[in-house]
Design brief:
The chain is mainly beta and 111 residues long. The chain starts with 15 loop residues before the first strand and ends with a strand. It contains no helices and eight strands.
Amino acid sequence: MKAQHEFFPAADVPWATTEAEGISQRLLSSSGDDGTLTGIARWAPGTSSGSEVIRHEYFEEVYLLDGSLTDISLGKTFKKGDYAARRPGMPHGPYRTGEGCTMLEIRYRIS
């Protein structure tokens, strides 16, 4: 289960590097052990997720706060205000961004 928090300024959470080059994250809440999280991800201009289609074992919601993100497989670019909800195992991506983007990302397990 994710940590519990009362309202606080999200901007007080520092940006941290992730395993993925060009992507940093403000981790707002997480379970710490199963990948369940709520965070703000920032992709630097020119960042790519690689060449492979992405699949994962958790439910994921993504809301683009700023910039744009291109799904290479679909040949579509998504912009500020666009939203995705993905069930476990749903194929998506790979992605790239020319200008960079910032997104709210929520991940959780379905029992």
